[in-house]
Design a protein that fits this description.
The protein is mainly beta. Helix content is 11%, strand content 32%. A 7-stranded mixed β-sheet has the order 1-29-30-31-32-2-3, with no helix packed on it. Strands 4-35-34-33 form a 4-stranded antiparallel β-sheet, with no helix packed on it. The chain has a 4-stranded antiparallel β-sheet with strand order 5-6-7-8. The protein is globular.
């Protein structure tokens, strides 16, 4: 078994009723990302890490909050609300207007009111719903046995939303996540549908067992301000309007490596592009498959990203696969970055990427800046510009190679902020390098205690994020360190979110936060937190 480096997921639809429509007025963005005035557009979509950079320059974010065990519950401060979630997940939330959207296991898209946290609706997108007419005809029991369960699931989703909304007021201070009959009924129904699906056609509906460790709803949804697009690693790609009306659904492969796929989709040129051992592009208006391009990788825990080259918009996957978005033409060769785990970032004509997984190619790895080719006609490839100095002394980050062999590996994606690039290791080591030269500015072993045990503990895998003038660094044990952006390590605060389902062990937090105005929105396995004022 290979190393889990990432460990980084025709129904009746019922509305929750009184919420105001989320349909946009047609106005374009009037503020930077992180500002309450920002609204996604087709040219500036909102998805994983916001616009992919992890920067929210329009935010004036919180720097102090806390949730710690106290008696049978928690003492909390700096938390506006904590919405209990009906199931786990590792994707990030996104904000569109006055709504927050996120995916939840195993196949749900949730919509919440941004101001209050009230769950407005839950929509499920099941694997069989995206199947072709030909496959459904070849498997008649799908329509005979599975389709009749959809109204039941829609009703169960409404009941769960109502039940969870009753716990929002006490979410930040309550003990164990509230168990409700509605949640269990929904889970029982989902299991019934899954078991029936596998009985109908095991090959079509049996999921990767390892994917289930972190789930099938790992990819973050993306929006163009008018619609929402989600990809689930059951193979489902789906589009909803902002009020939860499904516009289209389609299904293809969902698999990644042996440990699963967590690649968030991207939008560009009226295409939704997903990755599942191939790139697939769907027309955003119709859901029609526009093209596919081979892109099989080894480690597959990163996400897709976009590159501009010679007037062309290019879709890219973490290890260095590239395809023109307009027609799917593969360019620049195969796996330009090797067995990479981090998702690269793009700025100033450069792609900043790690070449190969560090444990496999030396503990220091190889992080480089690559020049983007001048054109996207198929010739050439990204060429190294400069390398980054990133090394630890033998005793700086101790490694127990039997229990915690990945402490020096990199899973979190890099952050470029004010001319500096920040990288964190799974074990809590921080590198700060000059983006223009690769020279080391400083390194710091952070005061964190992430778990990196083989093979289902992801360590410090949440990507560094900049909001306003601060940088947020999160381990997987509830701790967030806030530092000042700059060439000297300056710690501003340490903040703990304690959370436990069994009353003993801390939940593993691996999602990356988002910011708007004076608030931070952060999802854990149990809650969606709104932190700030």
């Amino acid at each position: 078994m290979k190393n889990l480096a990432w460990c980084c997921l025709a129904a009746l639809v019922l509305s929750s009723g009184s919420a105001q429509s989320a349909e946009p007025s047609g106005e374009k963005s009037t503020g930077p990302l992180g500002s309450a005035k920002f609204m996604p557009t087709p040219d500036k979509p909102y998805g994983w890490r916001g616009d992919g950079s992890g920067r929210y320059p329009g935010a004036t974010p919180p720097t102090k909050w806390e949730r710690r065990k106290s008696g049978g519950g928690y003492a909390a401060s700096g938390i506006v609300y904590a919405v209990p979630l009906p199931n786990g997940g590792v994707s990030c939330p996104i904000i569109v207007g006055n709504r927050v959207y996120l995916t939840v296991e195993p196949s749900d898209l949730m919509c919440l009111d941004k101001a209050s946290g009230q769950i407005l609706w839950i929509r499920s997108s099941l694997a069989f719903e995206g199947m072709s007419a030909e496959d459904r005809k070849a498997n008649p029991d799908i329509d005979a046995k599975l389709a009749p369960m959809l109204p039941q699931l829609a009703k169960a989703n409404q009941d769960v939303a109502d039940a969870m909304n009753g716990h929002i007021a006490t979410g930040a201070t309550a003990g164990a996540k509230p168990a409700t009959g509605a949640v269990q009924k929904k889970k029982d129904l989902e299991k019934q549908i899954n078991d029936q699906s596998v009985a109908i056609n095991k090959k079509l509906f049996s999921g990767n067992w390892a994917q289930a460790v972190f789930g099938y709803a790992g990819p973050t949804p993306v929006s163009d301000g008018k619609r929402l697009y989600a990809f689930f690693t059951t193979g489902i790609s789906v589009c909803y309007d902002l009020d939860g009306t499904r516009k289209w659904i389609n299904r293809g492969s969902g698999d990644g490596s042996e440990h699963g796929n967590f690649a968030s989709p991207i939008l560009g040129m009226n295409r939704l592009v997903v990755w599942a051992n191939e790139m697939r592009a769907y027309e955003t208006e119709t859901g029609k498959l526009a093209w596919t391009a081979q892109a099989k990788s080894f480690n597959t825990y990163g996400s897709m990203f976009k590159v501009q080259a010679g007037g062309e918009l290019v879709a890219a996957f973490q290890s260095g696969y590239f395809a023109r978005i307009r027609d799917g033409q593969r360019i620049w060769g195969d796996q330009a970055f090797g067995d990479s785990v981090q998702t690269p970032i793009v700025e100033g004509g450069l792609i900043f990427a790690r070449q190969g997984y560090p444990i496999a190619q030396g503990e220091s790895g190889s992080f480089k800046a690559f020049k983007i080719p001048a054109g996207a006609e198929g010739g050439g490839k990204p060429s190294p510009s400069h390398s980054f100095k990133m090394e630890w002394a033998e005793d700086e980050i101790p490694v127990d190679k039997k229990k915690n062999p990945f402490d020096r590996g990199f899973v979190a994606s890099p952050l470029l902020a004010d001319g500096l690039i920040y990288n964190v290791t799974e074990g809590g080591g921080l590198f700060c390098n000059d983006a223009a030269t690769g020279e080391l500015v400083y390194k710091k072993v952070l005061p964190v205690k992430p778990k990196t045990e083989y093979w289902n503990w992801a360590g410090m895998s949440a990507s560094p994020t900049q909001a306003g003038k601060y940088i947020y660094l999160m381990d997987n044990q509830g701790l967030t360190i806030v530092i000042q952006a700059g060439r000297v390590y300056k710690e501003v605060s340490q903040n703990m979110l304690e959370e436990s389902r069994d009353g003993k062990s801390q939940e593993q937090n691996v999602s990356t936060p988002i910011f708007e105005g004076t608030r931070m929105y952060y999802r854990t396995p149990g809650y969606l937190y709104c932190i700030g004022t």
